[in-house]
């Protein structure tokens, strides 16, 4: 019997082996190759970029240095700001709208199924379809700007996708300091919650990293990198893209929250009501804390989607509209339009690191909770 | 009472927000090109003009065929591979599976830009550059993690006793799969097929970079190009958007329950 089981395990391994080999090559092999390309000068010389056997030289981290401090690559740095603000407002928008709708539907209104279908249908569309429609919705002289005229008000004047306005400007030279400060703050919060829950080891690790990071921020973090002041901020042209993205994806958070709300046992609600909690307190004190793990998962999933956002911007604003550019799009332009292949690879690696920073903790969390079950 | 009014009020406003773009697409697609103006964006058409759909249909028919060919072949391959992989991971844990599984899952979250340059070269070197079959291959490979995950979680629900009973009856690895696991798999297949159909139909990054010849373009690329040209009147892009959206929309409307399961499978367990 034992040898039979072993033979079957071998069959199992042989069945899954081709998939594993494919993924090893197509995911990890190609990532490694992209990383190697990002350390070369492939594409610096236009004559070499497209030749069948290009002469490629190893130049170390030069491409990355240029992206973060080089004069010509300031567009990439603005793109980092764009991604940051896009992610921030997109995630907040989806969480807010999704939670609100889920709570309303959880009350069991008439036509609940109808509303749910309406709120979720954009999820089945391509970002290209959504982008095409919203591009027409946001024409400066028409679309949404014309809506007020239907009730006799003057028409809206915001230029939406072509707006050049920028607010909340920050000097690029302050970015390392501010980033370190923000990450340090998050680590301090993690430290506090870890100690409160009695997870000593985790608390000390977080405390140690927070101290190191903040120490760095206040000593070396302010040493300047650029000889001039370079301002970046929140491009208002992104508002339109954020709006369309929230339209498309908030149904997803609604579905997540609704599943969560339905999973909360009725006894818990009854117990709170018996204790004299108002409906407001019930949600604020009892139900919302129960939904915290869902919120965290949704933040991570939405966060990584928004870091990767490419097709929506492409279809809505076009690939060349600088105010709404994002790194995922810049990588495409740099590599496939400008043939700066090595620099495109470097942008891709930075994008991968950003996504990994969100997804690795997510996977760790998901799989850990699975083992516990 | 007031609570009810507020509740339905907010739900109505939300419905309006979600349906406004739908109204605009339909209205614009049904207008004569000359009747489309920025000031009159929201006005209904004075007379229905179906010509745009006929034009969009002629222009997009080959692209829709490409999309169907791509989506259906990749989805079928993925469903079969995912089912076998999920079976192995759920019922025949081999040493190292605990390390390999997370590494596999990571592959479905990466920004594909991080593999695009070597991938582009690879597809060209094996002679599939610019063709639809290169795209099929790419979708099958990068779809493996999610389909494996969905099937693995689905098969985890099959009780061990059933597998054990099959084993006592003398069934081996393949016997247990074909006699016990596969016959129970229909809902799993439906979820995976619907989810992959939607994903691959809607995909854009691989399509725009790997398929160079216009004859092989899927619908998303064709639509992006049509709408990106500044000169076109908006009736055509809107009719095209409707055509491009229709297949996935119909799947969602008629099989919504399974669609939502696929949606949640990628994010929360169980």
DSSP strand content of chain A:
under 5%
If helices are DSSP runs of H or I spanning 4 or more residues, what is the number of helices of chain A? Answer: 14
Mean pLDDT of chain A: 89
Instruction: Supply the CATH class of the domain at 73-165 and 236-339 in chain A.
Output: Mainly Alpha
What string, H for helix and E for strand, traces the elements of chain A in order?
Answer: HHHHHHEHHEHHHHHH
Tell me about the largest β-sheet of chain A: 2 strands, antiparallel
Got a strand count of chain A? 2
Layout of secondary structure:
The complex is a heterodimer of chains A (373) and B (270).
Chain A lengths: L1 H37 L7 H4 L12 H8 L4 H33 L5 H9 L6 H11 L28 E6 L3 H22 L3 H20 L11 E5 L2 H26 L2 H9 L4 H30 L2 H7 L9 H11 L3 H32 L1
Antiparallel strand pairs in A: 1-2
Helix pairs in contact in A: 1-14, 4-9, 4-11, 6-9, 6-12, 7-8, 9-11, 10-11, 11-14, 13-14
Chain B lengths: L1 H28 L21 H41 L5 H10 L6 H13 L6 H24 L4 H9 L4 H9 L4 H17 L2 H6 L8 H10 L6 H20 L1 H10 L5
Helix pairs in contact in B: 1-11, 2-5, 2-8, 2-10, 2-11, 5-8, 6-7, 8-12, 10-11
Notes on the structure:
The complex is a heterodimer of chains A (373) and B (270). By secondary structure, chain A is mainly α. Chain A is 69% helix and 3% strand. By secondary structure, chain B is an all-alpha fold. Helices cover 73% and strands 0% of the residues of chain B. In chain B, helix 2 packs across helix 5. The longest helix of chain B is centred in the N-terminal third of the chain and has 41 residues, at 51-91. Chains A and B meet through helix 1, helix 4, helix 5, helix 6 and helix 9 of A and helix 1, helix 2, helix 3, helix 4 and helix 5 of B.
């Amino acid at each position: 019997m034992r040898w039979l089981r072993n033979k079957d395990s071998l069959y199992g391994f042989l069945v899954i082996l081709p998939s594993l080999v494919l993924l090893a090559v197509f995911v990890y092999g190609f990532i490694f190759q992209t990383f190697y390309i990002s350390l070369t000068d492939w594409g610096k010389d236009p004559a070499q970029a497209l030749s069948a056997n290009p002469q490629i030289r190893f130049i170390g981290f030069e491409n990355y240095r240029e992206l973060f401090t080089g004069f010509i690559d300031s567009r990439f740095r603005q793109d980092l700001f764009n991604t940051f603000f896009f992610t921030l407002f997109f995630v907040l928008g989806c969480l807010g709208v999704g939670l609100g709708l889920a709570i309303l539907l959880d009350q069991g209104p008439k036509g609940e199924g109808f509303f749910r279908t309406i709120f979720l249908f954009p999820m089945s569309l391509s970002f290209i379809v959504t982008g095409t429609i919203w591009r027409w919705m946001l024409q400066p002289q028409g679309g949404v700007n014309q809506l007020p005229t239907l009730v006799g008000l003057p028409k809206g004047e915001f230029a939406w996708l072509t707006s050049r306005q920028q607010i909340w400007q920050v000097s690029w030279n302050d970015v390392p300091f501010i980033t370190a400060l923000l990450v340090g703050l998050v680590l301090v919060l993690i430290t506090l919650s870890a100690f409160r829950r009695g997870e000593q080891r985790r608390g000390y690790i977080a405390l140690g990293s927070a101290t190191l990071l903040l120490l760095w921020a206040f000593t070396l973090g302010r040493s300047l990198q650029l000889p001039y002041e370079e301002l970046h901020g929140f491009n208002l042209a992104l508002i339109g893209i954020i709006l369309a993205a929230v339209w498309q994806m908030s149904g997803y958070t609604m579905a997540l929250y609704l599943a969560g709300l339905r999973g909360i046992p009725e006894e818990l609600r009854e117990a709170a009501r018996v204790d004299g909690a108002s409906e407001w307190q019930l949600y604020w004190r009892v139900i919302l804390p129960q939904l915290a793990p869902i919120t965290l998962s949704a933040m991570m999933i939405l966060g990584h989607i928004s870091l990767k956002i490419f097709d929506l911007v492409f279809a809505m604003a076009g690939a060349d509209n600088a105010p709404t550019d994002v790194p995922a799009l810049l990588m495409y332009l740099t590599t496939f339009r400008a043939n700066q292949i090595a620099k495109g690879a470097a942008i891709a690696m930075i994008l991968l690191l950003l996504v990994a920073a969100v997804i690795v903790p997510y996977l760790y969390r998901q799989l850990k909770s699975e083992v516990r079950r | 009472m007031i609570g009810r009014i507020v509740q339905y009020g907010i739900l109505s406003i939300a419905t309006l927000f979600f349906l406004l773009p739908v109204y605009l697409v339909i209205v614009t697609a049904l207008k004569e090109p000359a009747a489309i103006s920025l000031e009159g964006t929201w006005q209904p058409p004075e007379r229905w003009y179906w010509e745009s759909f006929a034009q969009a249909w002629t222009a997009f028919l080959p692209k829709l065929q490409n999309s169907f060919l791509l989506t259906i072949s990749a989805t079928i391959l993925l469903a079969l591979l995912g089912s076998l992989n999920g079976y192995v991971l759920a019922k025949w844990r081999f040493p190292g599976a605990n390390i390999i599984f997370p590494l596999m899952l990571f592959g479905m979250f990466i920004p594909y830009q991080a593999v695009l340059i070597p991938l582009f070269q690879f597809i060209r070197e094996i002679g599939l550059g610019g063709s639809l079959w290169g795209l099929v291959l790419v979708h099958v490979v990068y779809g493996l993690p999610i389909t494996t995950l969905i099937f693995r979680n689905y098969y985890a629900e099959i009780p061990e006793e059933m597998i054990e009973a099959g084993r006592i009856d003398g069934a081996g690895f393949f016997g247990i799969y074909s006699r016990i696991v596969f016959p129970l798999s229909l809902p799993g297949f439906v979820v995976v097929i619907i989810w992959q159909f939607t994903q691959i139909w809607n995909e854009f990054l691989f399509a725009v970079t790997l398929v160079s010849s216009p004859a092989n373009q899927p619908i998303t690329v064709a639509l992006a190009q049509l709408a990106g040209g500044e000169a076109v009147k908006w009736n055509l892009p809107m009719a095209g958007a409707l055509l491009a959206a229709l297949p996935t929309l119909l799947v969602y409307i008629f099989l919504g329950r399974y669609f939502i399961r696929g949606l949640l499978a990628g994010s929360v367990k169980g």
